[in-house]
Amino acid sequence: MKRIYLDNAATTPLSAAAAAAMAPYLEEGVAAPFGNANSLHSVGREAFTALEDARARVARAIGATRPDEVVFTSGATEADNAALIGMAVAQRERRRLKGGFSGGRVVVSRIEHDAVLHCASALKRLGFEVDFVENDATGHVHADALEAAMREDTLVVSVMAVNNEVGTVNDTAALARIAHEHGALFHVDAVQALGKIAFSVGDAGADAASFSAHKVGGPKGVGVLYLKTRTPFEPFLVGGGQERGLRSGTQNVAGIVGAAAAIDHAVREREAFAARSMRWRDELYEKLCASSRVVAAVDVAPGDERFAPHIVSVCVRGMESQTLILQLDMRGICVSGGSACSSASLDPSHVLSALGTPRNLAQGLLRISFGEQTVQEDIDAFLSAFEEVVA
Ligand code: PLP
User: What is the pTM of this model?
Assistant: First the structure.
């Protein structure tokens, strides 16, 4: 049975560009480029050159002004944690040194990925106050809501560019402006924005941003933390001082080279990918919601750019996500019930709860997400399998 993979918001297959870039590094023996990028000899220098080429490539792709604003990490989970904790701790220290400051507060949205939400809980245990900025029924976080959530002791604000479950696109530039007006730093989780919508860290007004290679055809376990020059940051992983002391640990050169090739390719191909994805998104919403049993998780109009092109999210009445996923899987179709991280949980998604979706409806959440390899036949096959399962 041919497998049709429509769960690209969870992860993507390795792209040809990434595989080709990584191939020499996966060869065996001393002739392969296996060096430690921090060694002084020629083998190390070779690895260092590859690492710095990858850094420059990623910096260009994400719109950073300098390559040294790019810090390689083990994924976006680490980048999110490092950004929130690193900036909150450093900002608190700065304000304490100025005198008369105690406490410290972090503001996040309710629709963030667990990497941000659970990090916010960890910050609470470290003595920070954590509050939420409200979103509307489509998951958008508006500037006036953030304005209302701000206080003068707010150190860091984190709001994602694109939600991974329902595809909401936030106006991060407007949110960053509010955060900055109140003296806070602004972090954006841009994992689902990269290669999907026009995005640059500069336009987003970000002091810090997180990206993940495996969502755009790169290898798993490689992420990027963008840190704007002179952003207060206390390193969270300490040790040998790699990544200019911002993230210790011997760099995964093979993975980083693959990540850079994948990110570069995804950003170059973005417009074409987004155009065909949006056609499939609009087709799926129209055809799926023609059934009285199916409700769109968010109201997406055809061509609506307030939602990402690659994510379709619907709720099926009277069915549970797990049943739907397994029944579709038996027909060769891979989709998910929201975030891959919480796929084992029977609790409704925290994102749908934040949108005010009734619990019984939220339990039937199904997310279909497109990747570079997706073709019209995949969409057609999904539609006929779905019709069988939800008959
Ligand atoms: N943030 C968002 C929005 C995501 O979709 C993901 C992926 O699940 C992550 C963070 C975590 O990324 P990683 O798998 O690289 O740790």
Answer: 0.97
